[in-house]
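User: I'm preparing a small set of examples for a lab meeting where we compare how different chains pack in three dimensions. I only have the primary sequence for this one, and I'd like the structure in token form so I can line it up with the others. Please keep the answer compact; I'll paste it straight into my notes.
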Amino acid sequence: MDDGTEMIAGPGDVSSLPSRHDAWVIGDEQAVVVDWYGASNYAKGA
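Assistant: Understood. Below is the structure token output for the 46-residue chain.
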């Protein structure tokens, strides 16, 4: 997060991430992310 907070989500976890977060996958496994909230505004100008 912007403040340096880190979180690790594992298989089957559900999380709620605030805006302005960053994410990456650790390891070689595929990851599937379902974004229920932000998809309607993704990549739109401010």
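A couple of notes for your slides: The radius of gyration is 12 Å. The chain has a mean pLDDT of 80.

User: Perfect, thanks.
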